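FW: tagging you since you asked about this chain on Friday. Here's the raw sequence from the shared folder, copied in full. Didn't touch anything.
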Amino acid sequence: MDNDLTYAVIEVGGIQNYILNTGKLKEMIGGSQLVEDLSKGILENALKEQGFTLVEPHQALKPEGDKVLALQRNAGEIHLLFASRDKAKKFISSFIWNVSTRYPGLPIFGALNDESEPCSWEDKGSYARSRGSAQSGITRLRNRAPVTTGMSMLPLCRQARLDALPAVDNDSGEFRSVCSRTKQSPWLLEAAERRLHEKFDDLTPGCRIKWTDNIETLAGTDSKVAYIHIDGNDLGKLFRSFLESDEYKNMDVEHSIKAMGSLSSLVENSTRRAMDDGLRAIIRFEYENRKGSNIGSHLTVPARPLVQGGDDVTIVVRADLALLFVDQFVSTFEREAVTEIGGRKIRLSVGVGMVICQMGYPFIRAFNLSEELLKNAKDLTKDETVRPSSLDYLVITNEVENDLDVIRHHIAKTEDKKTMLTAKPLILSGNNLYDFVKKGLKVLDKLPRSTVRPAMNLCRKGKDASKSAFETLERNINRQLGGRASSELMTADEFNWIFPEHSFFTTVHSEIKGRSAEATCLGDWLELPHLLPADQGDKNAQTPSDRITNYLAMFSVTEEKQG
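HL: got it, structure written out here
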């Protein structure tokens, strides 16, 4: 039937697991590029080869004949509207077959709306019903998909080291599975690097930018990396608010499709700009700190984006640049992701989960931990009408520290179970992140180590147990005693800014309804050296270097700097 409009959904199942379930950065980059290109060049070429014309949402033309309306094209998720069921079925079958053949191992699924839920150009409600029907089809296919449980190699197969699947070839002594070979495809790696060069090559005059696919090169001499996972808050609520608004109810189908497309574009474009600004901050910092020295012919960027779809982002960054990336990403996203629905301005925000670990820590385990941390960060603000962005992170220094529940509910609680030994998750509104780092640096630089470490041990027992140690330290600060060698003494004003409640413990999350708690930041500040640039000359130096000063100067401080 020529007017039998059909809603089609194509989806990659488990994007993060597909990209990250490997021990090789190169494979992650290739897998990420494949997912990115699936909804762009691969889809566009496939439609063109079969004689279809792609129509973008901002045009919102009723699909007739061989026209196909693209309702959504995010990385790993594609929604298309075809003029007839026969055309949709033919294209989806061909597309899934060809992609699966060319890129074996990619978990791709396709489904059409059920015939009992037809789509009508005149009925806006039919789109939601058709979409739900097609997505139910995707869910059924994913539930029936085989679960990877390993495979007996028998005496006939060699096991690929990276993913434990049967090896299909040997690349310089490395046995690879067919999935690994797909993700290490040269054209995928070249396309990923080309895309980055097009965006960032103008940032380093006289010095060529180099993007590495080697985790050791990315991690640098300190061998630590940060896996950062970012996800938007309340995106579903945003779209539901629009669908329930009088503005939407008074629209015809054409204008409603355009409006929904604009909302999707707002989210995706805000995320891309935020990612770009975060990477630019890293590149500028590295470039500025090498100018005047032997900068050489190229600058290796200590970061690689791994997942970027809609509002979902995963990136690996050298550990000492992670907080700068988060600060820049959040600042840009909150500035860009602003819209108005029903006369009410809506500002979107994000949750951030981050794991800092040695470069040899398993990628997939770090990602799973970052997901848990992301959930913690988002849960803190979930009941807020206007949600601020939030960050939770974990510094892993040994193999025992890989169970977040154990760490937060046992190790991070004081012995009296009344207070917490961490102020995380952190609220990222205003200058909170800048102030958190600034205060930590003053503690590390100006308070005597012989006092801070024992004070932390007393804090583990509880607020009351640490009271006398705090009072002694406060008296010494007021009398201008103590301090560290080669460092200025902390002033009383600085001390009161850092400890406003005259205790190592302070009230955190007071701005979040019902979530106020007492915690000490002391332990968080003591682990800051894992997250800040080391002194160029001596990593064990007692005073902050110009490198750290320059680092803090790049934070998005919106009010007068304190301290």
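FW: Residues 6-143 form a domain with the Alpha-Beta Plaits fold (CATH 3.30.70).
HL: agreed, and The longest helix spans residues 253-290.
FW: great, closing this out.
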